[in-house]
Amino acid sequence: MPYPRELDDSALSAAAAAVEPLARRLGLSEDLARYAPFRFQAHDGRPTLHLDDLSGIPFLDGVAGIEEYQHRARVRCGEGDVFASVTPPIEGYEAYCRDVLGLGAPEFVQAEPVGAPLYVAAACRAEPAFSALCDKARDGLVLHPYMAMEALWELGAALHEATGAPISVLGPPPPVTWVANDKALFDELVHAVVGRDMLVDTARVSDSTALADALWTLAQRHDRVGLKRTRCASAMGNEVHESQALRHLGKVGVEALVDAFLHRTRWEGDEELLAVAWEDTELSPSTQLWIPPAGQGSPRLDGIYEQILEGPEKVFLGSRPSQLGEALETRIADAALRVAAGLQALGYVGRCSFDHLVVGERVLFTECNGRWGGTSTPMSLLDRLFDERPPYRAQDVMHPSLKGRPFPEITAALGDDLWSPSNPRGRFVLYNTGPLRTAGKLDVISLADNQDEAERGMLEVLPARLGFA
Known about the structure:
Elements lengths: L8 H18 L1 H5 L15 E4 L30 E4 L7 H8 L6 E4 L9 H5 L4 H8 L4 E5 L4 H14 L3 E3 L4 H8 L1 H12 L7 E4 L2 H12 L4 E6 L8 E5 H22 L8 E5 L7 E7 L8 E11 L4 E7 L4 H21 L3 E10 L2 E8 L6 H10 L6 E7 L8 H8 L13 E4 L4 H4 L1 E7 L3 H16 L3
Parallel strand pairs: 1-2, 1-4, 2-3, 4-5
Antiparallel strand pairs: 6-9, 7-8, 7-9, 10-11, 10-13, 11-12, 12-15, 13-14, 15-17, 16-17
């Protein structure tokens, strides 16, 4: 890859100095003290518990099949690991991961639901799952979650108390998790490290009247504007408007529109709100990073991707490796690494990604995904399967004819187009197959020798093989 992959020591020090005022304002050093016993430092031979608890992100009920996304954790697992969910794996999928892809044979723990099915960590603290995890943790355990929310640290503490074994969480403590995942706090961090010029024109407010005023003001100088909740994923907390239409409504009409947005997104007055310029660009790259504990080296840039987005709110559908060119990718990489170094200095550890916009000559940050996600999961899976990533396109595939269709029937339909180490000319790798049950949806990676053929595989070959071309 031509762009920078890491930072030197001077750049790391500069980023750490830049975020120190933010850390003091948030009182992070005091907040982080209680998480210190369980903070991850290094892999030391202990097995890893992978679990994808998505309960900390609002409005995911708008994502089809979301209750089955917890099985994405399986493709991060290796031999000797364990993964947990509150729903059973789809028939045939474990054999596919183990025998076709060669991803080892981790243990599976199915927990009984405690409330909503997304609350996997809470379910793991109840029996019989907790006893099974204690048995696995007798000599120590690393918890590697989708997103390191409070419930994951509570699970780690409970396992330690029950077993006396060393337990650590491979992820940032919750106060730092929310610096990354809260759009308002992340804006502060970007501003501190790389400057306001790398942010979208944004107003940050705390009540509906101020939000309406901010949206009205932005509509006077931009063609399109948007409303954003600060802690949502997959554009579920976004709403986009043409400024001309808002000007036609007038200020009273805009106030009503804002009230409707806050009602729809169930705002309870305890979270800041954003009004933003909605930039007119099709270039929305994503940078994928791995952040080690502070003092253990630079954040690592694992790739730059073009996001495949749908609709005016830009709902995430999938991704493909960037083809933006070396000069632009180098600028994006440098900025992303510096912001990642700022997060590292605050205490961030683990997988992280940034969403960007390219507007003319400007590279802008729009948000951070302080967790695993729809781009990092297939990227990391391919890193397990290949010495060097091939051209590919990864995305959700959803069709009514797939709903309830048995997974072995799908693999049979793909036949010799299904990739495996023994069939390296195969086109497709499958994962996140649980939503087939209720939503007719799975995730697919289309592989090829060149990007155009990877696109054709996803858009033409796959639908034809599965019978909905």
